[in-house]
Amino acid sequence: GAVVSQHPSWVICKSGTSVKIECRSLDFQATTMFWYRQFPKQSLMLMATSNEGSKATYEQGVEKDKFLINHASLTLSTLTVTSAHPEDSSFYICSAREQLSRLAKNIQYFGAGTRLSVL
Amino acid sequence: AQKVTQAQTEISVVEKEDVTLDCVYETRDTTYYLFWYKQPPSGELVFLIRRNSFDEQNEISGRYSWNFQKSTSSFNFTITASQVVDSAVYFCALNAGNNRKLIWGLGTSLAVNP
What are the angstrom distances between the C-alpha of B113 and each of A30, B80, B94? Predict the structure, then answer.
């Protein structure tokens, strides 16, 4: 159980194009999903917290117009990198946390990540 | 302030050695959760364990064991008889109070050599 699918796993795009990354919880409902960015040999940097049916909460320094997040259902959140530039090249990882309940354990389960290369 | 410190940046051991990864945390909250995740070269983060602040029992899962000590604010992770497949970056993380976010350590890169 607790499987999170992230797609695509790898994408190369030209500068100026937009890229959409999908994050799906396959066997549980996730009221909250998180989007992270990770640079080589560094820790995870939280970009935003995505809540189903409401606007995402962005961390300080993250451009909301640059990184569009949509959490339209309890199993799907998307991150769109708009007008991508080479400096946006990175490893993007999503995680999903099970709908909070008495039985939920506040555990984030992670997707496999998306390696974005902007030329 | 909440903080997680993993002082060991890189560790290299030979297969079958035991290795302990250190994690020290800071929080003023009395209710909090501690986590360990493994990130192999493929990149996916794998959940290993969650411990809440009211449960100081140590835990063993196969070759993995965790030592939670509130007195020293530490949550250390030991791999017994390490294997090459254990080579990965290991992250310790903290979730405290009403904060829904995980506070991450910088990770410890473990290399297990044959």
Answer: 39, 14, 30
Q: Is A48 helix (H, G, I), strand (E, B) or coil?
A: strand
Residue A8 three-state SS: coil
Provide the chain B residues 37-96 that lie in CB contact (below 8 A) with chain A.
37, 42-47, 50, 91, 95
Query: Among A11, A106, A109, A115, which would you mutate to test the B interface (most chain B Cβ atoms within 10 Å of its Cβ)?
Result: A106
Work out the end-to-end distance of chain A between its first and last CA atoms, rounded to an integer number of angstroms.
Answer: 37
CB-CB contact of A33 with A97 (8 Å)? yes
Residue at token pair 């910088």: B106
C-alpha pair distances (Å), B33 with each of A45, B41, B63, B68 = 19, 26, 22, 11
Residues 6+ apart with CB under 8 A from A8: A21, A114
Whether the upstream peptide bond of residue B41 has omega within 30° of 0, thus cis, is no
CA–CA dist A69, A12 (Å, integer): 20
pLDDT digits (tens, 9 = 90+) for A6-19: 999 999 999 999 99
Q: Which of A16-30, A76-90, A96-110, B35-49 has the lowest mean pLDDT?
A: A96-110
Give chain B's end-to-end CA distance (angstroms, integer): 41
Q: CA-to-CA distance for B78 and B63, rounded, in angstroms?
A: 8
